[in-house]
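Could you join me in thinking about how sequence relates to backbone shape in a protein? To get us started, please write out a protein record for me. Would you write everything just below, so we can both look at the same thing?
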Amino acid sequence: MEIRPTTDKDLDVFVDTLHAAFGRFPETPAEDGGGLWWSALETDRSLLAVAADGRPVGTASAYSFELTLPGEALVPAAGVTGVGVLPSHRRQGVLTAMMRHQLVELRSRGEFLSVLLASEALIYRRFGYGPATYAQQLTVARHQAAFARPRARGTAGIPATGSDAGPDAGSDTGSVELLRRAECGGILEEVYDRYRRAQPGALSRPHRWWALGAGQPPVSSAPRHVAVHRDPDGVPDGYASYSVESNTLTVDETIATDDAAFTALARFVLGHDLVTQVVFKRLPPEHPLRWQLEDFRAGQVSDDDWLWVRLLDVPRALTARGWCADGELVLDVDDPFLGEHGRYLLTVRGGEADCVPTDREPDLSLDVSDLGSVYLGGTTPSTLVRAGHVRAHRPGAAALADALFRAERPPHCLHWF
């Protein structure tokens, strides 16, 4: 078997092989080639596994993204996608060979992080990936969608304001405008880009994705209604993309640069007539919307993992992000898939870190996949210690690691790739 890079001439073969791996058929492309999720594939970052008889049997690819880290650092990250093996060649080492080839190639490009969305949770941990961001789906019955009166009040009965106080029913002086997806692509692109630059765990959406309609709504050009929120100066600062079918209003995604804009958008969709329920897809964990409803049980929640993270260069990755506490921690990191092992002294001062190899006794021993899970601050090291996956070598080590790896806000990723 040979694993080789692809060129533009291989695009059709790559797409056909990938769809066959999942038992599907490609959609018919539009005349301009847009509107299909694979229209943004980067053929110079794609791989084909070819059997001895010349038949393609596996695929893997990667996108060029920016990932927002704690501290609002923007770093390059390879978005692994299009991974599939024909049913006739599964459990023959094809996937393992492709994933190892890809990781080596990413390193050769100088990249120190890769990310993916896992179709199956059991597959990718063995390649060093760990779940790092999480999402909630919130389903609200329309007849239970009344908002509670905010209980936090300011001085002399004045409603509390500010990001720490939370939005008040009367504190939003902006406006909501209803548009169609075809009318507001530029607004969506601009608002999303502002949002993702301040949100740990968020990925960039390159302009070509929007231009090609590559992905799921609202990136794709599929018909959608879009509620656009504007601040008091008329500047767009949030949107909710949604559709209505069978009396259910489904919100593809809600983007807002502050809580007041999000609340205004939530009120808008929850006030929609002639629907029996509203489904909010991929809300951040611990989002306050359930608490804002008068009936706390009106919102039914289901949780899922979303972005998985893989560190390719531990010192570079740890020094790239920002930190919320000071301290020293010795991490003993095992990377069995690549056959590597390293021990690193992490020193954090004033929000910046230094990370160097060390012979000191470790504070924590962990797999590289577990380091990926805690990297963005969405999983606490102490949770993995309690689960039996990370070993703490001294009392207080897990608590110190929790304080160090904590992010200024929970990481969240909305982008589908």
